[in-house]
Design goal:
The chain is of the alpha+beta class. The protein is built from 27 helices and 24 strands. The strands form three sheets. Strands 1, 2, 3, 4, 5, 6, 7, 8, 9, 10, 11, 12 and 13 form a 13-stranded mixed sheet that branches. Strands 16-17-22-19-21-20 form a six-stranded mixed beta barrel. The longest helix has 38 residues. The protein is elongated, with a radius of gyration of 37 Å. It starts with a helix and ends with a helix.
Length: 898
């Protein structure tokens, strides 16, 4: 039964009249007296009788014990009534201390919203490829090896490996190969324009038997069996055929390759590392029939039978591959497999589980974009840190206010409350705060999802329609509420009422030490995050400003140049005549990801090929304008000249190649040999050699991520017409694009004008690091903000507790600055301790992350000092506001209130 407003007013006036306790306990006493009166009225007593009974409980110890016993009986017999009373008291307490309640709710809500978003991100990253029915039995083959001191790690394998897996290893049910050939221009007979597509791949017929990709139309067993057949995704079927049935229709790729549509499948889920819109039959590729075991062009996946031991299978796999590699190593290198291994060389085939591919792959070239388990761990750690900081805020404020609430505890114990009742009361207040914070957090997270998706490159959604989601939220609120409130609840409920009410309570140093430790931990985390963010940004800045060996600014890349066929050279010459263009080059080999690569083993002329003198080197087909257009530096020899006939067999090497071959300079008339490679069939001839004369040396340039060392590269004069690069000398980029596009439309009006910029393509190589830096910055800022909220409230409380001291000091002549320093110095000490603890761990973590890069920034002591200074300034600004406010208050008012 709830009291009326008139009854509550009566109780309040009577308490004031009787002068039972100190004035600052009137509100606490009123709450608890009202609750006990309501309990007695619920058992049938009249209001005045119930109130008199409660008031009489302030008598002897015997009467107090009787009231306690009655309260215990009432709580045992009427748990619903007691819970209702706990709830009402909690609401009153929270509403009465609005400032501290706001700080707690705001800090928890922001922390929980951040934690919620990061948890969804982590869950999405961990869910990759989990939708396949046979996910636990699907693997792919990867290779690791060493040849002449050069390590290699490939996710691609020889063409004959897949068939050998099925035929020679009974543990394998099925196998499938993938072969990526870049982008294509796609059209149909009914269309007048082409579209550039990059999600195309060649596949063996067993794709639909291994992977759980539902077919909408077509036969999964025969869809990719015949040459020149293609399976397309549902979205591509709609794009190219609208409402028509696409089966049997023809799709034309690059203007001359006609494929018959044999199947339509559901779009690939976003949480799949396999992202294809077009699956073309592997039988369409002549190179798929290659029998060379030293080649490496095909991704190979297979389905393992149930119950197979992975380690034993890997051993059998390597035994099989060694049987096939043995004769080829002898034929090409002239050494037996045993001699090959004795020289320190090796080739090892490993199997990689399907669900490990996305997060545990670090190959230079892979089938699609991959994540990094390191960043998953980092984000998960940040989420935990933010949540811990929010919980620390609550514990700090609760223990800091313990001296005030100690009197409340004393009164309630006198009025019949047991320690168990008080523990429940304080835990309920905490859980209510958590539930309120969770509600606000869900709203904040829902509003922040679009921005977070932009930052993280994701398309996650909060499952607001899922009952499981709300069940998890409720359980989390209970868990966090208990976790954050259990110490204050047990700490506060342990006070002895007689000492509290007589003003003899000595809290000791325990709670102060705990609060100090928690503040240190908060700023330890904050400093750690600040240093981590600064390290990532410094490395990115180092990458962007490092001399790359080529000029990436103001270089336009014009795609699909090969579609111009015989018009490509006239087109190049015409754009060179544009006033904005200084030079242009025709080559598909560019020093950024996403363009052609070709690595072949070379050895010096006059020697027999062997494991001791062969060097694995990139060979790039370029024209005579390539070096000048990309701003490379020729440090020895000369450039290509198409008018010199012998330059068709000339090569310009980089410094890494010069060192690998042991050459002093290019003018020594060196020549390099390699096995002849048939580009159509993919077959390497061991009896026919190609000879290249070294005519120059170009300064080393980065063509892979800076996580990799610069490896040997050779530029040869040849045709590679996939793109044209054009160097322009104007800031008016739009005028350049308009002029080049007009020229393109003149030569190929039916083809789309596709372009990019070299500096943008270079930037995409580090998009993961950029996202990590941005996300780290945002969440580090939020972590510091949440920590400052708690520090702000704590400083306000400490200033409130020292009101009398401040007033006396001001009366005795203390300055505002002196008082501010007095109030701030304790927190400053804590920041210094946090800094000293954080620096070694931050240095270790930064070193571990930077070790992934062969070229990295040198992190000096200055970064750590700046991070500590930032934390120090933030803390001083936070505490200083409250300190100045307290120092500038009128001492007369503070002394009068005391």
């Amino acid at each position: 039964m709830e009291l009326s407003n008139e009854q509550i007013d009566y109780i309040q006036k009577d308490i004031n009249y009787r002068g039972i306790v100190l004035e600052d306990l009137e509100e606490e006493l009123l709450d608890h007296v009202c609750t006990l009166v309501e309990e007695k009225m619920s058992s049938g007593q009249r209001f005045i009788d119930a109130y008199d009974a409660v008031i009489r409980s302030f008598g002897s110890d015997q009467e107090i014990q009787q009231v306690q016993n009655q309260t215990l009986i009432l709580s045992n017999n009427n748990p619903k009534i007691m819970f209702r009373n706990y709830f009402k008291i909690a609401i009153r307490s929270l509403s009465k201390h609005k400032f501290y309640s706001f700080i707690n709710v705001a800090g928890l809500a922001v922390g929980l919203a951040c934690c919620m978003l990061i948890s969804l991100f982590v869950a999405d990253e961990l869910s990759y490829d989990g939708h396949h029915k046979h996910k636990d039995r699907i693997y792919r083959v990867v290779r690791h090896g060493n040849f002449n001191g050069n390590e290699f790690h490939y996710s691609v394998n020889p063409a004959p490996l897949a068939s050998a897996l099925v035929e020679e290893l009974p543990e394998v049910e099925k196998a499938v190969r993938f072969r990526s050939r870049g982008t294509y221009l796609v059209t149909t007979d009914a269309m007048t324009e082409s579209f550039k597509e990059n999600r195309l791949i060649f596949s063996d017929p067993d794709f639909f038997q291994i992977f759980s990709v539902p077919l909408i139309e077509g036969n999964p067993e025969t869809a990719l069996k015949d040459p020149m057949t293609i399976a397309i995704s549902k979205s591509m079927a709609s794009k190219y055929f609208g409402t028509e049935d696409p089966l049997g229709k023809i799709m034309t790729l690059d203007g001359d390759e006609e494929y018959h549509v044999t199947a339509v499948y559901e779009d690939m889920p976003t949480n799949s590392h396999l992202q294809f819109d077009f699956l073309m039959s592997m039988a369409s590729l002549e190179e798929s029939k290659n029998t060379e075991w030293l080649s490496n062009n095909f991704f190979t996946y297979f389905l393992l039978k149930d119950g197979v031991n992975e380690k034993l299978f890997e051993q059998k796999l390597n035994d099989m591959t060694e049987r096939h590699l043995r004769p080829e190593i002898m034929a090409y290198i002239g050494k037996s497999l045993e001699e090959f291994k004795e020289a320190g060389n090796y080739v090892v085939f490993n199997i990689q589980p399907l669900q490990d591919i996305y997060l545990h792959s670090s190959f230079i070239f892979d089938i699609g974009p991959t994540g990094d388990i390191t960043y998953v761990y980092l984000f998960a750690a940040v989420a935990i840190f933010i949540l811990v900081i929010a919980c620390i805020n609550f514990m700090n404020l609760s223990t800091a206010r313990s001296s005030n609430r100690a009197k409340e505890v004393g009164v309630r114990k006198v009025l019949g409350s047991f320690r168990s009742h008080l523990i429940k009361q304080f835990l309920l207040e905490t859980i209510l705060l958590c539930l309120l914070a969770f509600v606000i957090a869900i709203a904040l997270a829902s509003m922040a999802v679009p921005f977070f998706n932009d930052l993280a490159g994701k398309s996650i959604e909060i499952p607001l329609s899922s009952p499981v989601f709300y069940g998890v939220i409720f359980l989390c609120a209970l868990f966090i509420g208990v976790l954050a409130g259990v110490y204050p609840a047990f700490f506060l409920s342990a006070f002895k009422p007689i000492n509290v009410l007589k003003g003899k309570l000595a809290l000791g140093t325990g709670s102060s030490l705990i609060r100090s430790g928690l503040v240190i931990f908060q700023f330890f985390i904050s400093i750690l995050l600040i240093i981590a963010t600064a390290t990532v940004y410094q490395q990115l800045n180092f990458i962007q400003n490092k001399k790359l060996g080529f000029a990436k600014e103001q270089v336009l890349i014009i795609g699909d140049a090969y579609m111009l066929n015989e018009k490509v050279d006239p087109f190049k010459k015409e754009i060179e005549q544009l006033p904005q263009i200084t030079s242009a080059s025709l080559s598909g080999y560019l020093p950024v990801h996403g363009y052609n690569r070709s690595d072949i083993s070379f050895w010096e002329d006059g020697q027999e090929p062997s494991q001791n003198n062969m060097v694995n080197m990139q060979i790039w087909r370029v024209d005579e304008d390539y070096i000048s257009t990309l701003g490379m530096e020729l440090i020895d020899g000369r450039n290509f000249n198409e008018e010199i006939a012998s330059d068709s067999n000339a090569i310009i090497i980089n410094e890494a190649a010069l060192r690998a071959y042991g050459f002093k300079k290019s003018s020594d008339n060196h020549s390099l040999l390699t096995f002849h490679f048939d580009g159509e069939t993919g077959v390497v001839s061991k009896d026919v050699y190609d000879k290249y004369n070294v005519i120059g040396v170009v300064k080393d340039f980065h063509f892979e991520s800076m996580k990799e060392d610069i490896s040997p590269v050779g530029l040869s004069l040849g045709r590679s017409a996939s793109v044209i690069t054009a160097k322009f000398a104007t800031e008016d980029v739009q005028s350049v694009l308009a002029s080049v596009e007009d020229t393109w439309k003149k030569f190929a009006p039916e083809l789309p004008f596709n372009y990019s910029f070299l500096d943008s393509d270079f930037g995409t190589m580090y998009k993961t690091e950029k996202r990590v830096a941005t996300v780290f910055t945002v969440f580090s800022g939020l972590a510091v903000f949440i920590g400052c909220l708690g520090l702000f409230a704590l400083a306000a409380f400490m200033a409130e507790q020292r009101t009398k001291e401040i007033g006396i000091r001001k009366v005795l002549g203390a300055s505002v600055g002196g008082i501010v320093f007095m109030l701030s110095k304790e927190f400053s000490k804590l920041i210094v301790v946090a800094f000293v603890i954080a620096v070694p761990l931050a240095w270790w973590a930064s070193s571990q992350w930077l070790s992934n890069y062969s070229y990295k920034v040198d992190i000096g002591l200055g970064l750590y000092l700046v991070a500590g200074l930032i934390a120090f300034v933030i803390a001083w600004l936070t505490v200083g506001y409250q300190s100045i406010k307290a120092a500038r208050s009128n001492p007369v008012n503070s002394l009068r209130s005391e």
